[in-house]
Amino acid sequence: MVPSNTSLQLIAREWVLRLADGDVTADDVEQLKAWRAAHPAHETAFCEARRSWRSLQRFEPDFQRHAATDAPKARATLTAARWGRVGGTIAAMAASILAVVILFDPATRMQADHLTGTGEIQKIYLPDGSRAVLNTDSAIDVAYEEGERRIELLRGEAWFEVRPDPSKPFIVHAHEGQVRAVGTAFSVRLEPDDRTTVIVSHGTVAISDGASITSTASVGERVSFGGRKLTQEGSVDIDSLLSWRERRVVIRDRPLHDAVAELDRYHRGAIVVLGPAREQRITGIFETDGIDAGLDGIAAARGLDVIHLTPLLTILR
Q1: Is a pLDDT exceeding 70 seen at residue 82?
Q2: Where is the FecR protein domain (predicted)?
């Protein structure tokens, strides 16, 4: 049986990366030849990966200039992570950008009770009547027990509106910490740097970093924790930060590269900003199901070019 297209892309990209690194032996070359000859789909996947790699070479000066400051997100699985190694060369940068977009690893998919794909936002009613809204590329596990309502945020971001029940605390576990509430509303987001961000939109929650640090947050406040550090960030613009529930992304005076990173959460593939435009500050409202149109609008307003180099890579410069 021929593996799925995603699996073939992963294998093909692994081979291209190894060839680019020079990390191959004579036996490896023979194995690659055998794999390419085993099925036409293998050869097609390899040629596409190689073609995408080569097409990036004309952007090498830009990549080298920004490799030290860009940190494109890695989409999990060991092979994709290796394809996405970040370094100071075009090879490492290109590999990162061409990481295959995989929604969930098998373990997460098996554990999750609810999950969303890239660009998808889902509203869920929990067993006790509480509500959850899952943001793009997110997953939760629901485990209600006799004395506790337990949610584990496996991936991404979710907002919860909790039905009051003092006898059964509502606890969201995220990374090493947890957020405890009885009757309130709040969001929890897993950040790329392994920190967790909590925003309270109603009531008060108790937050623990999983060690000895605890805190509380009330309506309008944001708290982040991780790495044995808990940071009380104070009042924030809830309407903007939680606008994703209405399928909108509100950007207020942020550097373009930072704003694009947020938009990229709702877009399949990677969006990269190159050149001086990276630090331009922008403000705008974007529809989560119209990110390409939003990029076109940014480009038109700032005199930039949008280049769709491959289905998995868009460059703004």
Answers
A1: no
A2: 114-205
